[in-house]
Amino acid sequence: MEAAGLFNQRGYVGTSMADLMQATGLKKGGIYNHFQSKHELSLAAFDYAISQVTRLYRQVLRQERHALRRMFGILQIYRRLIDEPPVPGGCPMLNAAVESDDTDPVLRSRVQAAMDNWRSLLRQVLQKGVERGEFQADMDIEKTVTVIIATLEGGIMLGKLYGDPVFLNHAISHGEQYLQTLAEPMDSIGGVKK
Q1: pLDDT value at position 188?
Q2: Most-buried pick from 44, 62, 64, 152 (CB within 10 A)?
Q3: What is the value of pTM for the model shown?
Q4: Cα separation of 92 and 111, whole Å?
């Protein structure tokens, strides 16, 4: 969906109908045949952008079984997003969260729901890891989820602000080190030491 990248790059308020018509090749009437308003289109564009990122998470979860490897795979998605973003313009959740904070309660609610889903996904991976003995039994899962998300989103924000991926790379490396300190030691074949 061309509109998702446009909204993600120019903002939900900053994207005009003329921009949307140019990006989609549709006339105003064509857009309004599918959406009752620019706002409705912006919500659909946000949902589409989030679905593209979620698809990448799901691929990692299908490929990996060990909780630490799953978490590392999720972190590596962010490394790939630097060069291969599924939607142009950076993290759609971060962009929409900042823009909707005081201006668009409907979009803000949509962003909160997307963040709740992401937090839940990470929580599930970590909880399974604790249950299987892959992470320390006393791990504070909620704290870990918060630290990982805040670190990644902060790295994205700094990287976008300075136009330099080094900030996100530092955030990813720190996330890997942090998770490693919470993991139980693994044997040479990748299983947990008993």
Answers
A1: 38
A2: 152
A3: 0.87
A4: 9
